[in-house]
Structure formats: C-alpha cells, structure tokens
Amino acid sequence: MLQHPKVKRPSVGLLGFSKGGDLCLSMASFLKGITATVVINACVANTIAPLHYKDMIIPNLSSDPGKYKITESGLLNLVDIWNDPLEKSNHRSLIPLEEAQGPFLFIVGMDDYGWKSEFYAQIASERLQAHGKDRPQIIYYPGTGHCIDPPYFPLCRASVHSVLGHPVFYGGEPKAHSRAQVDAWQQIQTFFHKHLNGKKSVKPSKL
C-alpha cells in the first residue's frame, strides 16, 4: 500500500468491519507504518480461523454453536455462541493491541446481534490502558445493529452469512441505525484526517 502512487505516505490508516475489524487490529499490532485504525463492530480476539503471521499462529476464538437462537422470523441469532476471550482457555486468541503504533477508534452498535461489540470494545480499552497506552476512542450507537454502512445505505437487519450459509439476524432499528450511519461516517473521516493529515474537520455528508 505504501508503494502505491495514490497512497499518501509515510503511513496508512485501516478501516475494518466485523471479521475485517479483527484483521485490522492484527495488522495494526504486527505491521509497521499503520498510524490510525478504525473498527466497526469488531472482536478483540482473532475469529473464524487461525491467523498465521511469519512463525506465529494466533488461534481463533472458540465458540459454542449450540448456543444459537432462532428469531420469530426463522433467522439465526449468534450473539451468544462466542466464548469469552478473557477466559484462560481463550487468551491466546486475544490480539496484542498494545503493540500498535497508532490510536484506535471503535464504532459500536448497541443492538448488534452479530457478537458482543460493546463488551469487546471495553476489553480493548482496559487492555491498552493496562499497558500504559492511551484509551481508545469508543463511540456507542443505541438502536444500531451489526452492519454499519456508509450514510444512506438501507439497514441490513439480516442476510445469508457467507461462512455459515444460513440467514443471520444482525439487529438495528431503522431510524436510529440510519442516523448512526451518517454520524459514524463523519466520525471516521474526522479521525483519519486528524491522525493521517493533521486536520480536524471534514465536510458533512449530504444526499
């Protein structure tokens, strides 16, 4: 990325959602040249599959598929299947955020049924502070589900999960979620402009 002619050096920022969020956390922790990381409803542990980097392997956070629930509409509710990353048996799956060079912004939907994003953001904050690092910026959005897209995208409350192959419920109330998408987009841009360009403001989102 740093060699790409359209990338402004000397560093880059990362933006990731869901599984992509924990991949960004891992990249920020292990790779140089990353000075700002934004994650949207992400886990602080490696998920889904083991992560291989050089001679290191970070196992994926264990889960208990038997804890899934079915909504009245017949959708899978997976929020309770993920085991606690703070349990001793799952410690190796935790991403060493304290090794990152730059700050973090966590965007959290408080009606997220994908997993416990609010809990994971709090773990990240406590871990960073325990290692003498700055507290991450965390923005909580009530009534907001898992899939926080750019402004004016329709709310995605459910879809067929790309890994499971089954329809999954993601949460979110239309009005609150739509407002959150507009605000989150502004917050993300402001964060990147501040930590990558040294600017403090951006133009508001408009139709």
Question: Which key terms come to mind for this protein?
Answer:
207 residues; alpha/beta; two-stranded antiparallel ribbon; 3 helices; 10 strands; 19% strand
Q: Could you characterize the architecture of this molecule?
A:
It is a single chain. The protein has 207 residues and is α/β, with parallel strands linked by helices. Helix content is 24%, strand content 19%. The protein has helices at residues 19-30, 117-130, 174-197; strands spanning 12-17, 34-40, 51-53, 56-58, 69-70, 76-77, 104-109, 137-141, 158-160, 167-169. Strand 5 (69-70) and strand 6 form a beta hairpin. It is globular and about 50 Å long. It starts with 11 loop residues before the first strand and ends in a 10-residue tail after the last helix. The model has no long low-confidence stretch (mean pLDDT 92). Pfam families: BAAT_C.
Residue windows where pLDDT falls under 50 for at least 5 positions: none
Largest sheet: 4 strands, parallel
Question: What is the share of helical residues?
Answer: 10-25%
Query: For the terminal residues, how far apart are their CA atoms?
Result: 31 Å
- SSE series: EHEEEEEEHEEEH
* Radius of gyration from CA coordinates: 17 Å
Contiguous helical run count:
3
Main-sheet strand order equals 1-2-7-8
Average residue-wise pLDDT: 92
| Approximate strand percentage | 15-25%
Query: What is the oligomeric state here?
Result: single chain
The counted number of beta strands is: 10
The secondary-structure class comes to alpha/beta
Q: What general form does the structure show?
A: globular
Pfam families: BAAT_C
Protein name: Acyl-coenzyme A thioesterase 6 isoform X2
